[in-house]
Amino acid sequence: MASAELKKMMNAAIARELKVSIQYIFQHIMIKGKRARFIGTELRAIAIVEMLHAEKIAERLVYLGEVPTTTPDLVDITGSEQEILQKDLAEEAYAIELYKKIIKMANDEGDSTTRLLFEQILAEEELHHQTFQTLLGE
Q1: What pTM, to 2 d.p., does this model score?
Q2: Cα separation of 129 and 109, whole Å?
Q3: Are 64 and 1 in contact (CB under 8 A)?
Q4: pLDDT at residue 138, as a whole number
Q5: What is the secondary structure of 65-126 as a DSSP string?
Q6: Could you count the other beta carbons within 10 Å of the beta carbon of residue 10?
Q7: Is the distance from CB of 39 to CB of 47 less than 8 angstroms?
Q8: If you write DSSP's letter for every residue of 14-82 in order, what string do you get?
Q9: Which candidate, 27, 16, 19, places its Cα nearest to that of 132?
Q10: Contact residues for 42 (Cβ-Cβ < 8 A; gap 6+)
């Protein structure tokens, strides 16, 4: 089955998913500015997807005999529209790199189920990254 290191990385992924679920949903509520309604709607939608990611990863960890973390990484909901979007873009870039490492490790360990799960999640994280780039005008 999965190595201790792979399960540790999966728990780190859950902590990150919990963080951004909370972060994006509160940013959705708190964002100000001309585009607040539009950006807030995008943040809310992404927050829900991120929570589903945490759930799927937790289910996989439980199957692998691990207790999933319930502690999110540090949440940051402050800042201007631009600052919020920059932070969120960086969060998605971090997730992309972490999930690529998890995919490689799962593949190397012959854990195709974990690899496939993270490939699906990675595709969604790349879409989120693209959404934040678009909102930033990049």
Answers
A1: 0.95
A2: 28
A3: yes
A4: 77
A5: T-PPP-PPPPP---S-HHHHHHHHHHHHHHHHHHHHHHHHHHHHTT-HHHHHHHHHHHHHHH
A6: 26
A7: no
A8: HHHHHHHHHHHHHHHHH--STTHHHHHHHHHHHHHHHHHHHHHHHHHHHHTT-PPP-PPPPP---S-HH
A9: 27
A10: 131, 135
Q: For the chain, how many residues are written?
A: 138
Token pair listed for 7: 């399960």
The CA–CA distances, whole Å, from 31 to 86, 87, 117 equal 13, 13, 32
- Full pLDDT tens readout for the chain, 138 residues: 799 999 999 999 999 999 999 999 999 999 988 999 999 999 999 999 999 999 999 999 999 999 999 999 999 999 999 999 999 999 999 999 999 999 999 999 999 999 999 999 999 999 999 999 999 997
Q: b or e along 64-93 (b: 16 or more beta carbons within 10 Å of the residue's beta carbon)?
A: bebebbeebbebbbeeebeebbebbbebbe
For 20, the token pair is: 């951004």
